[in-house]
# Entry
Amino acid sequence: MIIIYTSNTGNTKEYAMMLREALDLPAYRLGEAPAQVDGAEAVYLGWIMAGGLVGYASAAKKYRIVCAVGVGMSPESEEQTKKLAEKIKAPEGLPVFYLQGGYDKKKLKGFNKAVMSVVEKTIMKRLENLPEAERTENPVYKMLTEGYSVVSKERLQPVIDWYENR
Ligand SMILES: Cc1cc2nc3c(=O)[nH]c(=O)nc-3n(C[C@H](O)[C@H](O)[C@H](O)COP(=O)(O)O)c2cc1C
# Structure
């Protein structure tokens, strides 16, 4: 079993490195794995872009994905996980996890930056309805205003548990 990941600004990579450490499995960025591991069973971790799991379709052509993990900026919820599973058309029985990562506009470039400058305004509008104390403590608010990450081993634990109990 191997770990394959795609990361744009580093949050998913951090989760992939934590998972490598916890499970003692080799981890490769998609496109950088040696040919010897083609066709191997893989845990796939990708960042979420417009609800989709970046890299999943190409990874699924090359490896036998046994678990898919999406990393986005929205808080974790059952609904997020369900939406992700639907979006990637997860085959019956494939474990799918959604993890909250981080966001920092300073790390974005080009198209992604342009798209997000519009999306940011929409999210900020929603957050502005929260009472100030609650808003300033909100992780997504911190992500949008100053750049922030909630990547942690605790958040990754359900994936580790899945691996250990599979
Ligand atoms: C163009 C773009 C679209 C995004 N769309 C979503 C989204 O639909 N849902 C979400 O929760 N996060 C979304 N995000 C936030 C990223 O998924 C989040 O920052 C993630 O942690 C990035 O992982 P990375 O650091 O490994 O690249 C988007 C970010 C960008 C740049």
